[in-house]
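Morning F.,

Quick status update on the modeling queue. The single chain you submitted on Monday has been processed. Sequence for confirmation:
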Amino acid sequence: MGNWKKQHAAKINDWLLLIGEVEALNSFANFSYNNSSFCFPEVSDGPAFRAKDLGHILIKPGKRITNDVSFNQQKFVILTGSNMSGKSTFLRTVGANLVLAKAGSVVCAAQMQFILSTYLSA
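Structure tokens below.
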């Protein structure tokens, strides 16, 4: 056993990284399988964030409110509304789906297009 450890010790980090990558891919596959109504987003060449029927991933489909979203021409958006009207949920919806999209997963939308860069340029 000691010889095996000495012989393969340098490879353990690579093996652990590989196991982690397989686990992540398996989790994305499971998430996609369990949410068959979700779609794979499209990567845009230019500044774009568009989604049709974008919904929060953690809200059950029967209670989920979806919205069409387009942030293509705006440099900023002012989001207003009364207390308890869904502003924070909307922002979390956009953020959570954008994180999933950039990770290569399905998103809670009928259709979605986004840019890979960290920020949208003018």
